[in-house]
Amino acid sequence: MKKLITVVFTLFIFNTLMAQTDETNDYFEFDDRKNIVHGVYLGFTPQYGRISNEDAGIFNLKLAYVANRKFEIGLSGSAFFSKQPNNTNVYRGDEVFLVGAYGGLHLEPILFGNRFISVSFPLMIGGGGVTILEKKANGEFDEAPLENETYDYDSFFIVEPGVNILYNISRFVQVETGIRYRISESFRLPYYGKDNIKGFSVGIGLKIGIFNMGRKKKIKDKF
Q1: Of the residues 139, 174, 216, 219, which has the fewest C-beta atoms closer than 10 A?
Q2: pTM for the complete prediction?
Q3: Cα gap 58→48, rounded to integer Å
């Protein structure tokens, strides 16, 4: 009888210790889930590139959510302009101004996001439109109407992958430098002809927001 009581008591103590261990493990798992790091920012990145072998300026604006410093998802929009030779007999002057905009879904995986310097791989998938401005006698550029008083424009599909180096200045400010490549569907404009905006661009930009909302804190013992 004494041996039976001893065995039962031993099993009771063992089960109690195991239950306490499980409760402790559950506590730590809950704490990890609760402290996922979130972020949101507004970014502006001027870029230099080439369109049809001519200099081009590109200005990018994006709004994105950052998940645990590992992945961004949001919206991206860019405007571009480039002086091009006037190879038509319709527009005046030696040059025309090719201008347009494109935008779409922004995706960006991030490596080493918790360090001061990190690496990311942005990808934009979307579409855009392009038109021509005519160079006037005073050197300014203006819309160039056709004979029927409509304007030249066309749309295109675009994918823009890239590589960025990110500098985490503070929890509110981040600087990015990088290179991108535009993979563009061809567009066609009356008199100007068929063309595209494929090419590399480089830029440096600024992101302003909150990059580590709900940041993790060290767990302190209660005892």
Answers
A1: 139
A2: 0.76
A3: 6
